[in-house]
Amino acid sequence: MAETTPKNVVAFEDVTGLIGKDLGKSEWITITQEMVNTFADATSDHQWIHVDPERAKDGPFGAPIAHGFLTLSLVIPFWTELLDVTGVTTKVNYGLDKVRFTSPVKVGSRVRMGVTVADVQEVKGNGLHLVADGVIEIEGEERPAVVARFLSRFYA
Question: Which of 76, 80, 81 is nearest to 5 (CA)?
């Protein structure tokens, strides 16, 4: 198993040099039932495969699973662990180009994200548009939980 990567700290003017760079892997996060229940409350998605551990034992996954969008939301803390751009006034999560939920995440599992920078382009307002390919893996599992292309903008 690869070790956690130290945060990449890059000055705004050097961000274009990240194109094609593997930024490494974030720390592991354990998905708890409390996280799942809180997410269910926040989104009004109380489907039993997420929030009823007893019933979920006999369900298709053999245990309760995290919401796909809960796992996807972890892109934000993982991303901030892996990259810090200095010399900027504003950092914006700009969106997603493609997302696939490729494997369920059982409660109690640990997940982390690896990221490669796919592209960086200048945008008006003295900004940079960064395209990143992220893979959220599940410890001990062959298939990842989420594969996503996400977008960030940095303004100096």
Answer: 81
Q: In terms of pTM, does the model score above 0.70?
A: yes
Closest C-alpha to 133, from 84, 85, 82, 88: 82
How many CA atoms, within 13 angstroms, populate the side-chain half-sphere of residue 30? 4
CA distance 33 to 63: 11
Containing 80, the helix (H) or strand (E) segment is helix 75-82
Tens of pLDDT along the chain (156 residues) come to 456 677 999 999 999 999 999 999 999 999 999 999 999 999 999 999 999 999 999 999 999 999 999 999 999 999 999 999 999 999 999 999 999 999 999 999 999 999 999 999 999 999 999 999 999 999 999 999 999 999 999 999
Sign, Cα dihedral of 66, 72, 76, 82: positive
Beta strands in 70-145 (DSSP E): 83-86, 90-101, 110-123, 127-138
Residues 6+ apart with CB under 8 A from 44: none
